[in-house]
Design a protein that fits this description.
Blueprint (H helix, E strand, L loop, with lengths): L1 H27 L13 E4 H10 L1 H8 L3 E13 L5 E5 L7 E6 L13 E13 L6 E10 L6
Helix pairs in contact: 2-3
């Protein structure tokens, strides 16, 4: 009688471990949804987004942080790091504040030129204010181009 009961408990434990293993494997290998498939929660210009954070960071965080945003603006610069990550910096050239758009597809960036207007869609992940008040950056990750570059 005891071995029969023990084998049932052992079988139940093995099934639970297998279910947990499958769940962990699927979560570990899960891919983030493509940004192009996500709908933008807000559409605004880069200058409007920067001003929203400068006027009230807590309110802007609750409104925009973690949300998909469609942002348009003038390209101030195109940056690249040693890992090959491409970043479009949008904003007013007279201001030190900007929206930093970390691009999902680096192949798109080659055709972008400084001074052109572009619309991108990305996920707002933060705001970095300069302690000295010289400028600030709003960060958008996994950005994709919404349209072709306009003259």
């Amino acid at each position: 009688m005891l071995p029969n009961k023990l084998s049932k408990y052992l079988l139940f434990a093995v099934l639970i471990l297998m279910a947990v293993g499958i769940y962990v494997y699927r979560e570990y290998n899960r891919k983030a949804p493509d940004t192009s498939d996500l709908a933008a929660a807000y559409e605004l210009t880069g200058i409007e987004l920067i001003q929203a954070f400068q006027n009230g960071e807590a309110d802007a965080n609750s409104r925009y942080l973690g949300k998909v945003l469609a942002v348009s603006g003038v390209i101030k610069s195109v940056d690249s790091d040693s890992a090959g990550t491409q970043t479009l910096v949008l904003g007013d050239t007279a201001s030190m504040s900007s929206v930093r758009c970390i691009m999902e597809k680096t192949s798109e960036v080659a055709s972008y030129a400084v001074g052109k207007t572009i619309a991108v869609k990305g996920i707002c992940t933060g705001y970095n204010a300069d302690d000295m008040g010289l400028g600030a950056d709003v960060i958008l990750n996994r950005c994709i181009s919404q349209n072709s570059v306009k003259p």
